[in-house]
Amino acid sequence: xxxxxxxxxxxxxxGLILILSxxxxxxxxxARTAPxxxxxxxxxxxxxxxxVPPTEAPTELASEDFHRYRxxxxxxxSGLNLAVGRDVLKGAELDAAMSRIAAICKDNPEDDFFNASxxxxxxxxxxxxx
Length: 130
Description:
Layout: H1 4-21, E1 25-26, E2 32-33, H2 45-49, H3 64-84, H4 94-107, H5 113-123
Antiparallel strand pairs: 1-2
Helix pairs in contact: 1-3, 4-5
């Protein structure tokens, strides 16, 4: 009997590759639509930056909204890790990833948190860019 986790990884990877590598869907009338994203990933970087605590403040004291971004990122990273079969953050802690995403967002305030998160993972060499 095969390894059930291996089957889940294959299915997850296939779905993830489809989601991350396909172009936006095209409706019959030719207008492009983006795939649906849910949660804090769809919020702008400027909205995320408004929740980032000062550097000297412990993460535990950050706002509830900041912790929602952190949990959203934890879900994304967990899904990617499962799908690709390796640590997409290359051993970095979530708090370090959140800081790096904040830096990415400062340069791209109109971008969304999802794309800033993927930019970080891609910069670590764990996913190919489109």
